[in-house]
Amino acid sequence: MSSGKLNEQAKGVYIIAATPFTDEGAVDLQSVDTLTDFYLGCGVHGFTLLGMMGEAHKLTADESISVVNRVIGRAQGRQVIVGVSHAGLENVRRLSHEAMMAGAAGVMVAPPPGLKGDEGLYNYYAQVFAALGPHIPVVYQDYPQTTGVYLPVNVFERLVDDFPQLVMLKHEDAPGLAKLTKVREGEKKPGRRRVSILVGNGGLYYPQEMRRGADGAMTGFAWPEMLVQVYELFAKGKPEEAEDLFDIFLPLVRHEVQPAIGLALRKEVLFRRGAIKSPKQRAPGSSLTATDKTELDGMIARLERRLAATGRLAKAAE
């Protein structure tokens, strides 16, 4: 069942899926199945595979496609975006075409680290669009904290104006609220396209970004149902209620975005929630100490108490 290609109207929560491994470090396709089912049970609107959180750089080309095929086959028609960022343009092109043939809705491309200057950035994406052709929808992944490449709003607007296949901004610049507002203001100019904007950074600034015109989230927080419920409350015109719910989860949102151990925490929670058989990362990866796990126990217990006090416990545990 195909959900069609990604376009500028995309909205909701596109969960960035973890890649499950066995304790020995092999890709665990059975856990890919259970994780996909878990995300669907949380109400996600789409999936993003092979993102930075998906340990994509540790997978072989064959493993990458096997994960993509497995999720698309089980996603019940939800759109699947595939991260294809790579130092070599030919690798970007090949993985993009393989992903689209497998049934992906579009691909996500981050600029290669070290790219210099506005013209350098524009020219790189012009080459990407030429290599992929006009029929593959593209998400620009704007994550300068990792790439070291800053995307000025005027350069993004040039790309949107010149390349109709650019349909979404994955907004992770931080601080980035003013930038998000500037993009949305710029779209009011005559003849300019409005593109979809989904936000990341673990959801750290999610309610404020929704208030400023984001269309949803693309991140991997281990309680995806919160991301979905916050989106739905905003969609129903209940921003205050959305913020109240977000606030209950904020200590764990913040805890999960720690550099170095953030992914280990996220996988540990997914493991505890029964979504994957092992919290293992493929080497080289981080692991949690006994103290880290005890700390997490306490934070989850506090979350459950606060949810119970608001009558939301059942929803979070579904």
**What kind of sheet is the major sheet?**
8 strands, parallel, barrel
- Measured as a percent range, the helix fraction is 40-55%
Total strand count, please? 8
Q: Give the CATH topology.
A: TIM Barrel
Tally of individual helices: 13
- Contiguous runs where pLDDT drops below 50 for at least 5 residues: 314-318
Q: From the alpha carbons, calculate the radius of gyration and give it in angstroms.
A: 19 Å
Report, as a whole number of angstroms, the end-to-end distance.
26 Å
- The CATH superfamily appears as Aldolase class I
> What's the shape?
globular
- The overall average pLDDT, rounded, is 94
The helix/strand class is alpha/beta
Q: What strand order characterises the main sheet?
A: 1-2-3-4-5-6-7-8
Keywords: Lyase
Family: Belongs to the DapA family.
Pfam family, one: DHDPS
Protein name: Dihydrodipicolinate synthase family protein
Can you describe this structure?
The chain is α/β, with parallel strands linked by helices. The protein has one domain: Alpha-Beta Barrel (TIM Barrel), CATH 3.20.20. The protein contains 13 helices and eight strands. It has helices at 29-41, 61-74, 89-102, 118-132, 144-147, 153-162, 177-186, 206-211, 224-235, 239-256, 262-272, 290-309, 313-317, and strands at 12-16, 46-49, 79-83, 106-109, 138-142, 166-171, 196-199, 216-217. Strands 1-2-3-4-5-6-7-8 form an eight-stranded parallel barrel. Mean pLDDT is 94; it is low at 314-318. It comes from Reyranella aquatilis. Belongs to the DapA family. Keywords: Lyase. InterPro entries: Aldolase_TIM, DapA-like. This is Dihydrodipicolinate synthase family protein.
